[in-house]
Write a structure and sequence with these properties.
This protein has 327 residues and is mainly beta. Helices cover 8% and strands 39% of the residues. It is built from 4 helices and 19 strands. The strands form 3 sheets. Strands 2-1-16-15-10-9-8-7-3-4 form a 10-stranded mixed β-sheet.
Length: 327
């Protein structure tokens, strides 16, 4: 039976990601090593700092918008992938697989590919988009994602002011400004089996003369994720910015509410990042690619017998309260 601290174990992957409160309170963040950080509200932030710290999220086909802040890069803790959730392969300019992984959006029929008008003309914004299929991310199925101008996809169910901290698929998270040029676009395509987002000819904010970047992320119905790069004018190590984190890889987390120490009537939200995949960014060049192959997870088992006896996974346990298999 799942009680006390064991309850957190049973909720450690998909379920706790659904536990969320809408109160505008302070937020705690736990990295994968258990270190806790707090981001209190900042109502007295200077106007210039406010402009640098928010991202507007447009909810397509839902209506309304919310504003959120990004998390400073020094608040994160990098965690090496242990091969538990994904296996990672890199392909260079001379690999045939590199060309195979690139999805040429010009090959699809009119109407299948959409250029997002808002994202293609703005800076530090994100849009909620529905998928036509269930996409398994870290073992749990998602039907909505959030595309950001900053070269990443947010995979959380509820947007918040720590959008860049975790729960992302990031082919190249950086301070891109598609609004700088009419040639810069953010496009996406959904053919029922794959969902592809392409950041085309986007430039770094304040460093536009250094060149345009073109790259894409593809989410396949099998759970495989690919990052493909066409134009990378500068090495990733040279594009750091105090105004926006620079990351490449995957991350997932769950969220819980905690009672406030100052007031029992209010709550604080805690984000726990339980896993992250970071790749070698020195290998990101023109005509290169990364492929993340999803490995079997405990969450895919829907019965206690399969959970405890399946040869596809190991270390799984069955939670009777949630009727879920977990690691």
């Amino acid at each position: 039976m799942c009680l006390g601290a064991l309850l957190l174990l049973c909720l450690s992957q998909a379920e706790l990601g659904k536990v969320w409160a809408q109160q505008q309170t302070g937020m705690l963040w736990n990295d994968a090593n258990g270190h806790q950080h707090e981001m209190p509200p900042q109502p007295n932030m200077a106007p210039r700092e406010q402009r640098l710290s928010y991202t507007r999220v447009v909810r397509e086909a839902v209506g309304g918008a919310v504003t959120i802040d990004t998390l400073p890069d020094n608040m994160t803790h990098l965690v090496e992938d242990n091969g538990r959730y994904y296996s990672v392969s890199w392909f260079g300019p001379d690999d045939r697989r590199t060309d195979e992984l690139w999805v040429d959006l010009n090959n699809f029929q009119h109407g299948q590919v959409r250029m997002h008008g808002i994202l293609s003309n703005t800076h530090r914004q994100a849009a909620r988009v529905a998928l036509s299929f269930n996409f398994p991310f870290y073992g749990h199925n998602l039907r909505q994602i959030t595309i950001a101008t900053g070269g990443f996809i947010f995979m959380g169910e509820v947007t918040h002011r720590m959008l860049t901290a975790t729960q992302y698929i990031a082919p190249l998270m950086a301070n891109f400004d598609p609004g700088f040029s009419k040639e810069s676009t953010v496009q996406y395509m959904d053919n029922g089996e794959s969902f592809v987002v392409q950041w085309e000819r986007v430039r770094l904010r304040g460093r536009e003369a250094e060149g345009a970047y073109t790259f894409q992320a593809a989410l396949h119905h099998t759970g495989t994720i690919t990052f493909s790069y066409r134009d990378i004018p500068l090495p990733v190590e040279m594009i750091s910015s105090p105004e926006h984190p620079v990351r490449v890889g995957l991350s997932d987390a769950f969220m819980v509410n905690l009672p406030s120490l100052q007031s029992p009537d209010t709550q604080r939200r805690m984000i726990y990042e339980y896993h992250r995949v970071d790749v070698d960014t020195t290998k990101i060049t023109n005509y290169s690619a990364y492929e993340f192959t999803a490995l079997p997870t405990c969450l895919q088992h829907d019965s206690c017998d399969l959970c405890l006896s399946s040869k596809l996974t190991s270390g799984c346990a069955w939670c009777n309260v949630l009727q879920r298999c977990h690691l």
